[in-house]
Amino acid sequence: MTTKVVNIMKNRKIILLVISLLIVLPILGYIGYIHFRTTQAENRIDETIAASKIPEDEVIVVEKIMYNSKVFAYEWFPKSITTKKDYANWKKIVTEKQQFLNGVKLTSKNKSRLDTPKNCELTYSFVYESDSKSVSSSYSYAGNEATPSQVKEYFSYTILANKSFK
């Protein structure tokens, strides 16, 4: 009777191991896939930033790269940056005008927002699209796409509109 119990216990352990592997391995595979694709996209975006002649030591990441997809179909990876020059320029503009670029008045309560580069309202947005293997880029002024006159007046660097990696 004890050998039957031992055999049943062994069979249950084997079944649990197989079930665990069937659940864990696909999850680990998917996590590995996302990591690989995100790293690939980040490299492409960084190449586009370098091709735009923005010095690496000037770059301040506002939003880290992020994986997005429509259920195993189209994938895109956005990343937003600002630069030390743009951040300094933004602080100067906000301080002089006594209001943020989005129109909110500068007060003693929100003045601390100027101390964090991630709050800068002058940003460059980059999106790597895996289908087209290209990076599209744009300027953002106060959270909206910048007009050509805003780009010329406020931004320190000219970025490439599109870069293909085929």
Write a concise keyword list for the protein shown above.
43% helix, alpha+beta, elongated, seven-stranded antiparallel β-sheet
Question: What is the element layout, followed by pairings?
Answer:
Layout: H1 2-51, E1 59-63, E2 68-69, E3 75-83, H2 84-97, E4 122-129, E5 134-141, E6 144-145, H3 148-154, E7 162-164
Antiparallel strand pairs: 1-3, 2-3, 3-4, 4-5, 5-6, 5-7
Task: Describe this structure as you would to a colleague.
The chain is of the alpha+beta class and 166 residues long. It contains three helices and seven strands. Strands 1, 2, 3, 4, 5, 6 and 7 form a seven-stranded antiparallel beta sheet that branches. A hairpin with a 2-residue loop joins strand 5 and strand 6. It is elongated, with a radius of gyration of 24 Å. The model has no long low-confidence stretch (mean pLDDT 89).
Roughly how many Å is the radius of gyration?
24 Å
- What is the number of E strands? 7
Q: Which percent range fits the helix content?
A: 40-55%
H and E string: HEEEHEEEHE
Structural class: alpha+beta
- Main sheet? 7 strands, antiparallel
Mean pLDDT score:
89
Quaternary organization: single chain
What is the helix tally?
A: 3
Low-confidence segments: none
State the separation between the terminal residues, measured CA to CA. Answer: 67 Å
Summarize the structure.
The protein has helices spanning 2-51, 84-97, 148-154; strands spanning 59-63, 68-69, 75-83, 122-129, 134-141, 144-145, 162-164.
